[in-house]
Write a structure and sequence with these properties.
alpha/beta; Aspartate Aminotransferase, domain 2; 7-stranded mixed sheet; globular
Amino acid sequence: MKKELRFFSQLVEKLIQIEETNPVSEPIPTDQVIGKLNLEFEEEGINDEDWEKLIENVALYTPKTASKLFFNQLFGGRQPKSVLGDLLAVILNSSMYTYKVAGPQAGIEKVIIQKVCQLIGYPNTADGTIAPGGSMSNFMGLVMARDAASTDIPNAGVSQKMTLYTSKESHYSIPKNAAFAGVGRDQVRYIKTDSTGKMDIQHLNDVIQEDKEKGFKPFFVNATAGTTVLGAFDDIEAIHKICQQHQIWLHVDGAYCGGVIFSKNYKRLVKGIELSDSFSFNAHKMLGTPLSCSIIVTRNKKSLSKSFSNEAEYLYQTDADDFDLGRTSLQCGRRNDALKFWTLWKSVGNKGLENIINQQFHLADIARQYIESHPDYTLYSFPDSISICFNYKNISADELCTHLYEEATVMVGYGKYGLNEFIRLITINANNTEKEILHFFKVLEEGSKELESKNMLSMVAS
């Protein structure tokens, strides 16, 4: 193992050095990647020297998601203390289902959950768990809502038409989860959104009322704290009033931007979060921990037990029920995703996490100010969002983003809202500064010139 760790250390050092000078990896076409990197298996293994070279090549061609020119997804950057926690979790290889095998690691997860519940204002009855991603956190919220709506469902199954509600801008996991839960995709009601991407409250109430009149059973409303395209925050307080009126479970999907609970300034964006029945967020997004670290909490820990607990004498053999985390989780065997968040949080404290969140909004303000001060740009997004949506000149967002990717100059994606398609810059890497944001626009503008010249030559040639 010592030899492999030395190689790992050398490789990581090389990767970080290259990341500074070459922040975007050269993309390999999908029809070439397996052959070019020799990814196929053979009857015999390869010697250590060839193996190390192969591993290095694979690493060097992998997209650099922590670099200062990666703005493509809802995650990015690298928090060193958190990375160390993740590496330690791999070495320890703890499974988180019982205290007997997890030991203090179970305690680490417990304190994270307890503190999150306190931060959002849940009562002492609250509890939670760490799930394998935001989609599964949403699934757990939906299942708890389903089982709260009818006590017979966990054993007898779904026997009536149940309906759930989510905005048109919500995450794509919601219809998938409806299928997984036996409710069905056809029972998902997509609620209209306003010009900023927030759920239309009146439309929500109208659709629920229509379903009740048709004999359906509304049971779940999914509000979003940070929609995937515009980064919009639904009005939790207004949605809660409707859920309370109709006795419906309110889940808040904060996978993208739920991390605002750590910021005194931006927590206002999830005002009323304490009124929700369940809430989830991804620490691997706004808080910068390595993938994945998804947390879901609920007002009443009995909901977790009711939906996810099952007796297993061969497994639960101690009297530490509260620390046998498998009793309230979706999985049995489960890797330790708590440690990397704990090592970061313990290192920087509450104020450090707040600074991480605040920096992302600061970078977003810088980007918006740049766009608004340059007439060649058109801005489509709004304050209080770290999704900066814009277009440059009259260049197609799809075409420009693809060109920048293929030329390995910057990684940024594009999105669509209504009839508008635009470039979507995500300022989620809190390690960036104003310098990196302004450099992004410089690279984009240079890339657009190259694209315009390329298109001009193509027109002449044709």
